[in-house]
Amino acid sequence: MSFRIGQGFDVHRLVEGRKCILCGIEIPHRRGLLGHSDADAAVHALMDAILGAAAAGDIGQLFPDKDPEWKGADSMELLAKVLAHPQVAPYRVVNADITIIAQEPKIAPHREAMQERLANALDCEAVSVKATTTEKLGFTGRGEGIAASAVVLLEKR
Ligand code: MG
């Protein structure tokens, strides 16, 4: 089979005293995302989508949050490791579509930079980053956290 599709989803808590990094871009904000790594929920969802398409497990298996090696890890570096995974490397990314679900901060001013950063990392021009609020409903709506979902299509090289 030459095409494989995958989806990923992630959530991180918004807290004071942390950087807010999404799609490899640091967003100036009064609060940031809490996690063992840099907590870039969008890149985490993207990595799980890629791993899912390749049926190569998930980021929890690859980068366990109990492992001190990944403490404070730059998720863009983890993404490079995912792309180099022996089950992923035989594929190229055809396109990727990410949705960030957040009441705050505003994503739109950073969208182009996010798309460019990911397009470079994935060596793929067809990268879409979208954002939505949840109309102040639920944990994202209350600003307690940020969620992200991603879909990717892989094609055998
Ligand atoms: Mg995560």
Question: What labels would you give this structure?
Answer:
single chain; 157 residues; alpha+beta; 60s Ribosomal Protein L30, Chain: A; two-stranded antiparallel sheet; binds magnesium ion
Task: Write up this protein.
By secondary structure, the protein is an alpha+beta fold. The protein has one domain (3-156): 2-Layer Sandwich (60s Ribosomal Protein L30, Chain: A), CATH 3.30.1330.50. It has 5 helices and 7 strands. The chain has helices spanning 41-53, 59-62, 75-84, 111-122, 138-141, and strands spanning 3-15, 20-22, 25-27, 32-34, 91-101, 127-132, 145-156. A 5-stranded mixed sheet has the order 4-1-7-5-6. α1 runs parallel beside α3. The mean pLDDT is 97. The chain binds magnesium ion (MG). Residues 10, 12, 35, 41, 44 line the site of magnesium ion.
SSE layout and pairing:
Blueprint: E1 3-15, E2 20-22, E3 25-27, E4 32-34, H1 41-53, H2 59-62, H3 75-84, E5 91-101, H4 111-122, E6 127-132, H5 138-141, E7 145-156
Parallel strand pairs: 5-6
Antiparallel strand pairs: 1-4, 1-7, 2-3, 5-7
Helix pairs in contact: 1-3
Residues 10, 12, 35, 41, 44 line the site of magnesium ion.
